[in-house]
Write a structure and sequence with these properties.
two-stranded antiparallel ribbon; 51% helix
Length: 247
């Protein structure tokens, strides 16, 4: 709700407004004429000019709920999602619903792209990377207190963080970080991260959007990027080998 302080009237119907807006933009992009009203209520027929070079506008929808995955499939949109609100085991069935929705609405279910946003920090040694990323990730979680509450709920804990002492918060941060490392990040070595990428692939994820900005240590982040490139190359080689084998 806090995101709507500049447009409070849109909050109640935010999803309907979004889907309608996407349809309007897509029609204008494809050269169709759209009827719109000005501030006085007068109606105008609107077209875009000059025409875009691309015939179709690639559309991405951020999805967290099953209903949004299904709606994204209905309009043939791609999906951007994350593991902030759940585990990969919880997200995988939602991706399947998206593929089914694509097919039911006349789209190629394999053509729709699912991109997973995931926190990333890669090095040679898992334990060293884990410790190097610990404090930056703690600080990140402190600025996103709702993530801590969500993780506590997932563990069956009923907590009121407003009543927590600093020691309580630190204990929860340790618990959250350990939980996050078990299948919700690409924080680790190339070997452990490759295992996570394979899990993502099996769940129906096509692309990984690496979130590296949680770590404010510029030098450490820059030093980790060659390892991320190595991981990308490992994934590409594996994909080429699979294609060659199936061929």
């Amino acid at each position: 709700m806090d995101d709507f302080v500049l447009s409070t009237e849109s909050y109640a119907n935010r999803k309907q407004t979004m889907w309608k807006g996407i349809q309007t933009v897509q029609k204008l992009w494809e050269g169709e004429q759209v009827e719109l009203k000005d501030a006085t209520g007068k109606t105008f027929e609107v077209r875009t000019f000059p025409r875009p070079i691309q015939s179709k506008l690639p559309t991405w929808v951020v999805c967290q709920s099953s209903a949004t995955y299904i709606e994204a499939g209905k309009i043939g949109a791609n999906v951007l999602t994350s593991l902030l609100g759940g585990t990969l085991e919880e997200v995988a069935p939602q991706i399947l619903l998206y593929r089914q929705s694509l097919q039911q609405n006349g789209y190629d279910p394999k053509a729709g792209k699912v991109a997973m946003m995931i926190h990333t920090f890669i090095g040679e040694d898992f334990d060293k990377v884990k410790e190097a990323a610990r404090e930056p990730f703690y600080n990140y979680l402190k600025t996103h207190i709702n993530l801590l509450e969500s993780l506590a709920r997932d563990a069956g804990l009923k907590v009121d963080l407003k009543k927590f002492t600093e020691a309580d918060i630190n204990s929860l941060l340790r618990f959250a970080y350990e939980g996050w490392l078990k299948g919700r990040t690409l924080i680790g070595s190339k070997t452990t991260c490759m295992q996570m990428v394979e899990r993502l692939q099996k769940a129906g994820v096509d692309e990984v959007a690496c979130l590296i900005d949680f770590n404010d240590n510029f030098e450490a982040v820059m030093a980790s990027l060659p390892h991320l490139k190595d991981l990308k190359n490992m994934c590409n080689r594996k994909k080429e080998e699979e294609v060659a084998f199936s061929g």
